[in-house]
Design a protein that fits this description.
661 residues; alpha/beta; disordered N terminus
Length: 661
């Protein structure tokens, strides 16, 4: 598919006469001012001729449109880099920065959830108790303890207390069970597990597999009487005996020491444990804080899971690192999102993945604008619903950003450009070197020139985003994963010069002439059909709009003896309201023939990760074989252009080549 993202540069052609006239007028004016100085007049004439020849007028036009944005971006970048540089020079860690923040307003609410909260003083005292407890238990610097718990105010202060004794915390996804849970505990080398009472059943299922790991059960303050698992320490009870006095390590941590492990979402398989250092934890919330022009008086609504970067670093970090009050929610609720924000006086709200689409599906009501939210921060707001979202909920500013838990390639949309995930100005390209390079969109393989170097993309050319790795600069480092082999796979060498090294984001983006970036697809998700490349992300956006913003997953499936992959879409429709005739008709008007999914699967529930990303791996493996699951499936008949039930006989005919595709 051809990406239709951003404003095409052809509009600049329509401005050509205006630009040329402006240059000529300015030159004439300056010439008048320089009258009597032949040398200056000559230089001005040369400048005017230079700017009016070739395509240079285009850059004048671009500059006139982007200089305010670019100057703002430069200020944000330099302010963030300078503060991180100062913190690193001073040896600042999350623990030492927290100590400064906690002293500023000790009685201010730090983390709020429902009617319960912890002040900065209470959070600090609780984290001190955690530190003393696990120190007396004999845990040593560099050891890893898993934290397996749903969102609550104490969550952050448990890992902060462990950080005070330089123990690394592995933040385990609370949705994991069985083999995936065991995998995450073992790849990080966990020596123990701290779990919430609500996770007791999940731990009980695997207890025989982790007998070498001591278990500590933390009962939430509102569930103090919950039963303690056998062979498990009652953490909340035993903490009461610990001192609340500060714990001071004689050998303090360093900014680049590992603070925690955060696991990738697992959309394509088992999660990987990404290393989060102290300096990276400081950088992420600071960058967003500066970009959104926040202050410590802001109240942040963070309904995201704390085991993920967006909720536990970007969101929680606004409290830990920058002194904001952070409002939590145990589980995201579309119907309570705006009422929560209004109740707690939130001025900033977070979103991720499909959250904004879910909010639009809630019937309109008085809570839509009964809030004080001035800016929403996150990633994954689809271009197709962007303007509708802003108009309905009255949000002044959308701060869409792009980045990965472990990556160094971050972008921010500072001026709420609809659909853009960020921008890169030529003013900062030397100090923040990101690049789009040409690749095979199907396999993700990077294309190189005759010298073995990567080929840079031009405007509107889809390419793989790479970020230069520079260990000397905190914003350009790549700490990798607990699994070093996985780390090596994310690095690309000899990109521009011999032996340089870049981080491979795995995402295909498009940049327009103005420097705005737009998401196109994940490498490996794009597939080829009828000689054309099909972007799953673009098709998902179109179909989601056609079916009332339902969860939609698009992927390619193989048909024996047929070149390429056919499109397949899985749609979550638990209310059974999907109208197949309207869908087929809408697709015929909205998508070219090669991009229309041949196969349709109806799901009872959306296949979501904990971070509201749509899973594809299992759906791809099951394909369109009706014998592998019981969900209803349909096939797009070429003659009638309607979706027909995919029976066992029809499946056999397709596989045997008896059906014309």
């Amino acid at each position: 598919m051809t990406a239709k993202t951003g404003v095409r540069f052809e509009e600049a052609e329509n401005k050509k006469c205006v630009i040329l006239s402006s240059i000529a007028a300015v030159s004439t004016l300056l010439s008048c001012l320089a009258y009597g100085c032949p040398i200056l007049m000559g230089l001005l004439v040369i400048l005017a001729v230079y700017l009016m020849t070739g395509n240079r007028y285009q850059w004048v036009y671009i500059w006139s449109k982007t200089y305010k944005r670019d100057m703002t971006g430069l200020k944000v970048l330099l302010a963030t880099m300078f503060r991180i540089w100062v913190w690193e020079r001073r040896g600042t860690t999350v623990v030492t920065r927290w100590a400064e923040v906690a002293e500023m307003e000790p009685d201010k609410k730090a983390f709020v959830m429902g009617d319960r909260y912890l002040t900065f003083r209470e959070g600090d005292e609780f984290s001190n108790q955690i530190a003393w407890y696990f120190k007396r238990r004999g845990f040593k610097t560099g050891e890893v303890i898993a934290l397996f718990m749903e969102t609550q105010p104490e969550y952050v202060f448990i890992w902060l207390g462990l950080a005070k004794i330089r123990v690394t915390t592995a933040l385990i996804n609370s949705n994991l069970r069985g083999a995936q849970l065991i995998h995450c505990l073992k790849i990080a080398g966990c020596k123990a597990v701290v779990f919430g009472d609500e996770m007791a059943d999940a731990i009980k299922e695997i207890q025989h597999e982790i007998q070498d790991m001591p278990l500590f059960q933390f009962n939430s303050p509102d569930r103090t009487s919950a039963a303690i698992l056998p062979s498990t320490a009652p953490l909340a009870t035993e903490l009461a005996e610990m001192s609340t006095e500060p714990y001071t390590d004689l050998d303090p941590a360093k900014p680049r020491d590992t603070l925690m492990y955060i696991y990738t979402s697992g959309t394509t398989g088992f999660p990987k444990a990404a290393i989060i250092t102290n300096i990276r934890y400081l950088l992420i919330p600071l960058g967003v804080h500066n970009s959104a022009h926040l202050s410590s008086s802001d109240v942040v609504y963070d309904p995201l899971p704390l085991h993920h970067t967006a909720g536990g670093v970007l969101g929680a970090g606004q409290g830990l690192v920058l002194g904001c009050t952070v409002v939590l929610r145990k589980r995201f609720s579309a119907s309570n999102y705006w009422s929560d924000a209004a109740k707690h006086g939130c001025t900033v709200a977070q979103y991720i993945g499909e959250i904004c689409r879910y909010l639009l599906t809630v019937p309109k009501g008085p809570n839509d604008r009964a809030h004080k939210v001035k800016v929403i921060v996150g990633n994954g707001l689809r271009p197709q619903i962007w303007q509708e979202f802003v108009d309905r909920f009255g949000v002044e500013r959308v701060l869409e950003f792009y980045g990965a838990t472990e990556g160094n390639s971050n972008l921010v949309n500072l001026d709420s450009k609809v659909g853009a995930i960020g921008f890169l100005s030529r003013l900062v390209s030397s100090i923040y070197p990101l690049t789009l390079v040409k690749c095979d969109e199907i396999t993700g393989e990077i294309l190189r020139d005759e010298n073995g170097r990567c080929i840079t993309c031009g405007p509107h050319e889809p390419g793989l985003l790479l970020g230069k790795i520079d260990p000397k600069k905190a914003i350009l480092t790549f700490s990798g994963y607990a699994d070093k082999t996985a780390s090596e796979k994310k690095m690309v060498r000899n990109v521009r010069v011999e032996n340089d090294c870049y981080f491979n984001t795995g995402d295909i983006l498009v940049m327009d002439h103005y420097g705005y970036f737009y998401f196109k697809d994940r490498t490996g998700d794009t597939f080829r059909w009828c000689g054309e490349n099909v972007s799953t992300a673009e098709v998902e956006g179109v179909i989601s709009n056609l079916v009332g913003l339902k969860d939609t997953v698009v992927y390619g499936v193989t048909i024996p003896n047929v070149e390429g992959k056919a499109g397949m879409v899985a749609i979550a429709d638990k209310e059974n309201k999907l109208r197949l005739e309207e869908l087929a008709e809408g697709l015929s008007f909205s998508l070219p023939a090669y991009a229309r999914p041949l196969f349709l699967r109806i799901l009872p529930e959306p296949p979501l990760t904990a971070t509201f990303k749509l899973k594809k791996k299992e759906l791809i493996e099951q394909g369109y074989n009706p014998g592998l699951h019981g969900d209803p499936m349909y096939f797009l008949d070429k003659k009638s252009r309607c979706y027909l039930p995919l029976t066992e006989k029809l499946y056999d005919d397709i596989v045997q080549g008896n059906v014309k595709l």
